Amino acid sequence: MFTNIRRRLVIALTVLAGALCVPASHGAGAAQPIVGGTAAVIDDHPYAVFLVDGRGDQYCGGAVISPTEVLTAAHCALAVRKSDLRVVVGREHVDSRQGEELGVSDIWVAPGYRDPLSGEDIAVLTLSERVSASAARLPDSADSELYEPGTMATVVGWGRLYENGPKPGRLHAAEVPMVSDSACADVFRSFDPETMVCAGYAEGGVDACQGDSGGPLLVDGTVVGIVSWGDGCAEAGKPGVYTRVSTYTDDIESDLIRRTGE
Fold this sequence. Notes:
Largest sheet: 6 strands, antiparallel, barrel
CATH superfamily: Trypsin-like serine proteases
Main location: endoplasmic reticulum
Strand content: 25-35%
CATH class: Mainly Beta
Domain Peptidase S1: 34-257
CATH architecture: Beta Barrel
Keywords: Disulfide bond, Endoplasmic reticulum, Glycoprotein, Golgi apparatus, Hemostasis, Hydrolase, Protease, Secreted, Serine protease, Signal
CATH topology: Thrombin, subunit H
Subcellular location: Endoplasmic reticulum; Golgi apparatus; Secreted
């Protein structure tokens, strides 16, 4: 089951030097350019970024949360050496020279992280330089309504258009409904409602995929989830699994203040 669930992530990461053997996900864990989505404009999602490895290949996504910090999945942050990791900000088309490409000076990973299926799949990258891109908002414990089943959320990324399919080469976005914790637990035995949340249609058809891992799931401009893992891409009865960001907001903000004073 582990291999099957993360085949989206495995395909995206095993080709990288030092890549982790973690299950494929809708984001880095599941490398898809968002199945069932449409081409998006970076100006509409200025917080959206993608990660590249030492060869300059896009393999994950992320979201700007401050002038010096990018939120992503732990399995994305640990997939390559820090010295090889670059963050591309403000670029809609992967092959263009739009925006800027920055190095990473520090990486914070949730202390309990082991692999996507075990939860805690969240990390913050400290950029080597400040960026002017608008930051996405982080949720707090009072934002429980953002996770209500049926609430529509937007997932953005540069991943594959369908499982094992081609990458679009440009930013895509799609709308998916939040799924109840009980419904997700019925599908995935490893689902942990404290660290994970699900989103997707019962009939499938719309989902994150290989290459989208680490990218944001947003409700009204707030990052409620991070593409983490799933079983295939956009399959019926198998919603995407995302890291529940609200669980980590206090830790992220405390770490940011400690390191930058912001």
